[in-house]
Amino acid sequence: MEIYQRHSAQIKDAMQSILDSNARIFIACSGGGSGLQNLFGMTPGISKRFVGSIFPYDMYEFDEFIGSPLADSYASKLGAIALANAAYIQAQKNCFKKNNLSGKIIGLGISAALATDRRRKGKDRIHIAIKSKNGLASASIFFSGYEGDRESQSQLADLFGLNTLLWGLGKSQILIEGSIFENIDANSSNVDVQNSCTIWPVNQRRSFIFDGPMYIHKDHDDCSSAHIMNFKSDTVIIPASLNPFHFGHHNIAKELVKRGLKPIFEITTRNADKPEINPRELEHRVHQLMGLWPVILRHNCGLFSEKIEEYKTSFAVGFDTAKRLLDPKYQPELQNAHKIIEHSLVKMREREQKFYVASRVIDGVLRTTRDLDILPDFKDLFEDIFVGMDDISSTKIREAQ
């Protein structure tokens, strides 16, 4: 406990700073950082700020928490980002249920590879990420000292995690081994634990100005624009503006995975009834999915009749969207909308596509496909997926924040 003891006064001040904030924090740690949860647990009154925590040490538990298998090493920057994004969703869900979305919701993810009794490639390291409404940021610490000293490394992981929270809240940090987090422009996240540490907004390293459709894999280190429509039959497209991405979206994707399907979100930048999404805002929306789910970005194809023709695969939508796409009055821009809708459904039947419809509670009543005005010949194309009893929407979150 030597490192804790050296910083005990600063730790106490740091916890008080968090208590004095308006934060709502969920922590997800794998491989290191578990002591940070103990620091919170020992602080009186912390329930005002601490939503919860999880320690998915085994890779299957890790995958279960984030929703699907990680596309990289679990002790990696992407691993920490995936944990932070999933932790943010957990905190958001808790705050929504308590009707308390006005505070600063934070998801903290820590993924570490600390001293071990087996051979391992690479240095002992800590990867940390923090997600809030303002965006996503990360830092990586590679040990040049404390080799073989797992206890000291674990305590440093805890304190670097605590400093990440303080950085995100704009509070004074703990001076750890001569280091604090600074917001600087950097090209590498490899930092020495005994030198200045860096943390900065995650950048995609790609342009968000594009012509044709862009497919971004969930590791967000790979993207392609060619042949993105050649999806297998188990692919399900989830069209959504993701403003913001919320636990309802996440639950839909997780439910599809449980059914052996592969969800891909889709953001269309140009819609008839909404302003065009600019590149900076688009980048922010994509970051919400980093480490969790792949996404297609495109400018056109805003109508479902166009999507059905373009993708040739199944879709997942919310109850409200399903209701609108079946009702011609919600598509005044289409001439002969009724015939176009019927033609699209005929195409779906020929291709053995489906609409997976997420049920929704409206005015205390659970609405499902039974409440949709579906032509008798096409009822089998619509299948219910149950994702909870919460009346959640992006609009409600924006209004509450």
Describe it.
It is built from twelve helices and 19 strands. The strands form four sheets. An eight-stranded mixed β-sheet has the order 11-10-14-13-12-15-16-19. Strands 1, 2, 3, 4, 5, 7 and 9 form a seven-stranded mixed β-sheet that branches. Strands 6-8 form a two-stranded parallel sheet. By secondary structure, it is an alpha/beta fold. The protein has two domains: 2-201, Maf protein (Alpha-Beta Complex), CATH 3.90.950.20; 214-400, Rossmann fold. Helices cover 33% and strands 22% of the residues. Helix 3 (34-41) packs across helix 6 and helix 9 packs parallel to helix 11. The longest helix is centred in the first third of the chain and has 21 residues, at 77-97.
CATH fold assignment of the largest domain: Maf protein
Number of strands: 19
Model regions low in confidence, pLDDT < 50 over at least 5 residues = 183-198
- The largest beta-sheet arranges its strands as 11-10-14-13-12-15-16-19
What is the mean predicted local confidence, pLDDT? 85
CATH architecture of the largest domain, please?
Answer: Alpha-Beta Complex
Distance between the termini: 40 Å
Proportion in β-strands? 15-25%
Give the fraction of residues assigned to helices.
25-40%
The CATH homologous superfamily name of the largest domain equals: CinA-like
Helix-strand category: alpha/beta
The level-1 CATH class of the largest domain: Alpha Beta
Overall 3D shape: elongated
What can be said about the biggest beta sheet?
Answer: 8 strands, mixed
**Structure annotation, total helices:** 12
Overall tally of domains: 2
Radius of gyration: 23 Å
